[in-house]
């Protein structure tokens, strides 16, 4: 395989400011992202949402890259983000074809305390696994959890999925619409290491087999709600900000507005993440549980 | 009796006012500031307590429904005399109409029929703990309320905006006495249990109204905007990590303010040592405000005698 065509997406959600800012910076001056032997294209995926500093205009762009949407006849009557998905698929895809971009990094922020999380879509993507292994080593002792979204029901059709090797960068906690310097700089550093990896790969360096610890997504947990759909409890203070920490059966999970504790009643220990993400209230998600797994990556070398 | 006392405790602060006091508690003035929305909804489930009548209001229901700060214009800038008396046409923004409705409900502003006390609940993305914001240093009632607030889970401060009533633009100015409660940090659109509980705890307070000194009073001096690109107006720096989350700390001449994306540091070049607040509030980017600067002072207030029948 080759890693010759790389894209960096910002503004897939228009109010996630680190990616918007970095990509705009690199569109003006791409020196920082330039690497030998590779075309690195910075790109604002949802310019209308960025302009309004909102997550999306009609529908979530990062859920819009379904086969149905991408193969639908194009037209002005389609939701803005579906039209946009079709355009992006034309430029960087077509999704699933040999002409698609090799690698796409999709830059996101979250209100959850997820640190610098890397999102992996396939457990069999050895190139991505090797890259994530490289990044984790490079930023140690700081950590870089890997979230594996491979799941029959919970996997969603992201903008980056147009590429052969999609990588999500999810950095938090940061409020929507806010730019925090430390969050911005951490995303910048992770991307720097990712591009260094690609440069080394393109120079012919062989990466030996390795293992990568990941968190595989397991179950979506919603807030308790009343019959009108309004939430009746909040993420419990003991769980708030505890992304990637173990949640055991019997541990506090939610707190009602009058102070009652609701506890986790699962069968075993899970590792919650995306805890109290602002954008997920409307998707009926308070957090998602994950299970730890170790994935094996085979050796890779440029062919 | 015990249970009744427990329920009264939630509104003790308000009950301590003269009997027949009319009090309004407002949430959702900004539709994505969630603590106030949920606290008002919870209070709407409680019956009238003690001798004060409590009116609870979701100020901007459309914005709450959409979980946005506002639909057309910022509601909490619509309460100046000029906007409240402006004629309504088809082109009038939703929030201006709503402000005039709220003026009828809670005011009219400046009149004898207005609510005795208007308390407006807000959140901020800035690390401001619990801050009370009000207009006049002469309002002993508000300053006494500030002194009563005894919470252990966050620092409590008072911010003074020196504006004549006609120019006062926020909803709390509708009442004879009024203040906003600002609790942070919380992302907009999120409800954090710890932040919600701080706001709730605020209403369990003491009962003494002795005179004396009031500390931790900050008076607004000026605002500072982000460095921006002169052509595109896009920001070119973020709040410096040494200033981020450090609301109410001292900013000295020469202290770092912004970290440019290019790596340079922009330093504070004022002459006076001041206290920054509303540092990195999401909603203020569009108002060209990176943070406000305030002068700290101590006020002295006389004891408050509560008239009872």
Features:
heterodimer; A: 303 residues; alpha/beta; three-stranded antiparallel beta sheet; 6 helices; 24% strand; globular; B: 309 residues; 12 strands; 25% strand
Q: How would you characterize this protein structure?
A:
The complex is a heterodimer of chains A (303) and B (309). Chain A is built from six helices and twelve strands. Chain A has 303 residues and is of the alpha/beta class. A nine-stranded mixed sheet of chain A has the order 2-1-3-6-4-5-7-12-11. A three-stranded antiparallel sheet of chain A has the order 8-9-10, with no helix packed on it. In chain A, strand 1, helix 1 (17-28) and strand 2 (39-44) form a beta-alpha-beta unit. In chain A, helix 1 (17-28) packs across helix 6 (181-202) and helix 5 (126-139) crosses helix 6 (181-202). The longest helix of chain A is centred in the middle third of the chain and has 22 residues, at 181-202. The radius of gyration of chain A is 19 Å and the shape is globular. The mean pLDDT of chain A is 97. With 309 residues, chain B is an alpha/beta fold. In chain B, helix 3 (34-43) packs across helix 8. Chain B has helices spanning 2-9, 12-15, 34-43, 61-66, 81-84, 94-106, 140-148, 193-201; strands at 22-27, 53-58, 117-123, 129-134, 156-160, 177-184, 212-224, 237-239, 256-260, 265-267, 275-277, 291-301. Chain B is 20% helix and 25% strand. In chain B, the strands form two sheets. Chain B has a nine-stranded mixed sheet with strand order 2-1-3-6-4-5-7-12-11, with helices on both faces. Chain B has eight helices and twelve strands. In chain B, strand 4 (129-134), helix 7 (140-148) and strand 5 form a beta-alpha-beta unit. Classes of the chains: A alpha/beta (303), B alpha/beta (309). At the A-B interface, helix 1 and helix 6 of A face helix 3 and helix 8 of B.
